[in-house]
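Table S4 entry, Glutaredoxin-like protein, YruB-family.
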Amino acid sequence: MRDVTIYTTDTCPYCIKAKKYLSEKGIEYNEKNVHKDFQAKQELLAMGYRTVPVIVINKREIVGFDKQKIDRALG
């Protein structure tokens, strides 16, 4: 089973692309919008990131929308 979380904002075009890509592959994910969710923002900052999207697949962190890295992490 895959554990997939994506940290997003409302205005990030790469977040939209990443969510669409995961959906097209039939991958369920948990979205954490850092503009709307203070706890999600704190989590993102604690990981050392100030940008989105950050996609976490089975504890592997991928910064940005990178199809190759996503596919490798998904196996």
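The radius of gyration is 11 Å.
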